Amino acid sequence: MRHVLRSSRDSISINLVLGDVTDITSDVIANPANKYLVVGGGVATAIKKKGSVEIEIKARRHTPIEIGRAVITMTGKLKCRAVIHALTIKHSGGRSTPKHK
Question: What residue segments make up the domains of the chain, in order of their start?
Answer without folding.
Answer: 24-87
